Amino acid sequence: MSKVLDKRAAPEEVPSLTADTRRHILVIDDMRTYNANDGRHYTYARTFDKGLTAVMDWMDGIQSFDEIWLDHDLGIDPDPWNAERTQTIRPIVLWLVEEALIFNRIRSSTKFRLITSNPVGRDWMRSQLEKWYEVYV
After folding, report:
1. Rounded CA gap, 88 and 95, in Å?
2. DSSP letters of 14-50?
3. Which CATH architecture does the domain made up of 21-136 adopt?
4. Which residues make beta-bridge pairs with 42?
5. Which 3 state secondary structure label does DSSP give 75?
6. How far apart are the first and last CA of the chain?
């Protein structure tokens, strides 16, 4: 969809023709890939560590995302000494809750979309995040 620019508008009201107006989405998921031709810009975090770093950078204002898409199960931890081995999004979600609850740090302009196929994980993520953010399934 293209916008018609009014030539009489003040310069600050005219959108930049060189600016990237696509929605910027952080996807924390170990497997899924989305169509890059759908008008959105995707940044992928395929592991728990990369997901946590991306979310912390977003919270600190280093990165900007319109939406953050979350998968619950993030694969197997390569560390053989980790007894749990299965990585999930839960520590990242709990960190977001802690930031909101204790430090009142909320980036409310960003929406969360839950893309997991794990129904228990999806319900848990929704119950934690919907207190502070718009959450979609």
Report:
1. 13
2. SPPSSS--SEEEEEE-SS----TTSSEEEEEE-SHHH
3. 3-Layer(aba) Sandwich (3.40)
4. 25
5. strand
6. 25
**pLDDT tens per residue across span 7-65:** 444 444 433 334 456 799 999 999 999 987 888 999 999 999 999 999 999 999 999 99
Name the range with the highest mean pLDDT among 18-22, 72-76, 107-111, 127-131: 127-131
Q: Tell me the CA distances in angstroms from 37 to 22, 34, 80, one per residue in order.
A: 11, 9, 39
How is the chain split into domains, by residue range? 21-136
Please state the length of the chain: 137
Q: Look at strands 23-28 and 67-70 and give their pairing.
A: parallel
- pTM of the model as a whole: 0.79
